[in-house]
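User: I'm curious what two different proteins look like when written out as structure tokens. Can you demonstrate?

Assistant: Sure. I'll show them one after the other, since each token string lines up with its own sequence. Here's the first protein:
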Amino acid sequence: MPTINRRILLDDCDAAGVVFGPRIAALAHHAYEEVLAEVGIDLAALIRAGEIALPYVHLECEFRAPMQHGDLIAIEVTCGRIGASSYTVHINFSRDQGRGQESCARVSQTHVAIACATRAKIDLPVCIREALAALTVCPS
């Protein structure tokens, strides 16, 4: 699955020196956008075209271990469910602790396809559905 590696920067952290909740949500969305580009979805072009949008309608964050300034974090993005008009992506933040990967945070985002003109829910276009399928983890 696609993984984005990113160092935690000073502006990611609060006064205690750890990444704070809203910043984790933003980092998750950045990784999601980068991975969409890797599987062929140019979100910027989609938005500029002004026909459909893919806003998230549900966001969950689970904080498991603090991420601190300087940590090198691996951010893995997978697609968990693809419905008729919506899909859910899972973003896992982890770091190497020398004895294996430690999960630091997990984020789930549910997105829905809408028509920009009406803001009404629409079916996911086939090209988006196919690109997201590349991010789906198949059970073994």
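Here's a second, unrelated protein for contrast:
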Amino acid sequence: MNTAQSDWKPISGGCQCGAVRYTVHAPVELTNHCHCTMCRRMQGAIFGTWSRMEARHLTIDKGEENLTLYKSSPPVRRRFCRTCGCPLFGEYKEEPGLIWITTATLDGGAHPGHPKERERHVCVESKVSWYEITDALPQS
């Protein structure tokens, strides 16, 4: 999928309990399936999927006061719902003006709009040994 911004229809997302709701107003730039230990633990999965976009294209529609901040490492800040613990957003100190959304929190499994060539597996050297990546996406 490669959705031009002019053809984009906003998509919504939110946490498990519904306390935090957000809208993505433009296609994301890229999507990473991160296999690092931190992402695996934060998302309780064998990898975490994150989509990066300009922060100005994201609105928090409900529950901004319910977001909690966790500084998981010096350059990374993660935001999650303080009620249900659902991870929602991440920011890197080195990427001002950009925000990462946890892609799985988009309603109905919506595609975040990145071009297919901008999707990849990252930190694969840290992946769990028993999981085999079988798709053709780039790996780093």
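A detail about the second structure: Residues 68 and 97 are 19 Å apart (CA to CA).
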